[in-house]
Design brief:
Residues 1-26 form the signal peptide. The protein is an alpha/beta fold. Helices cover 43% and strands 17% of the residues.
Length: 329
């Protein structure tokens, strides 16, 4: 039945009003978020860079969200154990992952079979920090400069050992880049995280490692010696420390972006809220100081920019891993 225009117009207005009212009612009846504690999984052991960053942002997030943000360390298999736990969690906004860039950009190229697909099963939420890796050596080595160290490794093939946060971790890949670029031979000793690797470096059980920041605190006291940064450019915190490229070791770039992910399917509104709160948390002087002590840089980004950064890192690392033929059983 067709209504006259003088009647149709009020009916249309009324229907629009009802639609708007229904929409408002639906929004009013929607379950608010958050209403309970939020779990922030760290897929590496306590004491490492990812753990330090998680414990740095969690108090500020708790205050902003009015709910506890609880850090839950789930280390194992170079981040796969914790990553899998989050990938399989309910996408309801109460489980997030704070991980290294390597666990997302490197693992898929090293492991023939993973229990989850980082690109499919995890969705980017927010970048936290650009984390660099630094070449640290035990002071028992008779070297004080990068050039002396490279010469020493070359003169003692297979005699030196280096620790890493695990097979396929960013520190491991940086060391492989270093060895391949310089034609060097050293023995890899993988650990279950950067913290235990650092402990053995301090004890002299391994002679060097590419450290994602926690070891820098031991440089001033002479317990460790800082020789270089495995980055495309010098770190602002250490302007006098050379890059490996400056010693002729090209294509050694171990930078990675640590950040937060959620299970795929998490509502976009929750992702946007978390991104906004994390970016705000990164402006706090206390957190920036924590990142600075790690030798990194706070890196607030939009969700889209963070996703694009991880895709670019994945392509860069994947290219090197294929060329070098690196695999993990």
């Amino acid at each position: 039945m067709r209504f006259p225009s003088r009647i149709a117009r009020p009916i249309a207005v009324a229907m629009c009003a009802l639609g708007l009212a229904g929409s408002a009612a639906a929004q009013g009846n929607a379950t608010p978020w958050p209403v309970k504690p939020i779990r922030l999984v760290v897929n590496f052991p306590a004491g490492g860079a990812a753990d330090t960053l998680a414990r740095g942002i969690s108090p500020t997030l708790s205050e902003a969200l009015k709910r506890p943000v609880v850090v839950d360390n789930r280390p194992g298999a170079n981040g796969i154990v914790g990553g899998d736990a989050v990938a399989k969690a309910q996408p309801d906004g109460y489980t997030f992952l704070l991980t290294s860039g390597g666990a997302v950009a490197i693992d898929p190229f090293l492991y023939k079979k993973m229990p989850y697909d980082p690109l499919r099963d995890l969705t980017p939420v927010a970048s936290v920090a650009l984390v660099r890796v630094y070449l640290l050596v035990h002071p028992s080595l008779p070297v004080k400069t990068l050039g002396e160290f490279v010469s020493y490794v070359r003169e003692h093939p297979g005699k030196l050992s280096y620790g890493s946060a695990g097979n396929g971790s960013t520190p491991h890949i940086a060391a492989e880049m270093f060895k391949r670029s310089g034609g060097l031979d050293a023995v890899h000793v993988p650990y279950k995280g950067a913290a235990p690797a650092l402990g053995d470096l301090l004890a002299g059980q391994v002679q060097f490692m590419f450290d994602p920041g926690p070891g820098l605190q031991y440089v001033a006291s002479g317990k460790l010696r800082l020789l270089a940064v495995a980055s495309a450019r010098r770190a602002p915190q250490f302007p006098d420390v050379p890059t490996l490229a400056e010693a002729g070791l090209r294509d050694v770039d171990g930078d990675s972006t640590f950040g937060v992910y959620a299970p795929a399917g998490t509502p976009p509104a929750i992702l946007e809220r978390m991104n906004r709160e994390i970016n705000q948390a990164l402006s706090a002087a206390s957190l920036q100081e924590s990142v600075r002590k790690l030798g990194g840089t706070a890196e607030p980004m939009s969700i889209r920019a963070y996703g694009e950064r991880q895709i670019a890192d994945r392509a860069r690392y994947g290219r090197f891993i294929r060329q070098a033929g690196i695999t993990v059983d």
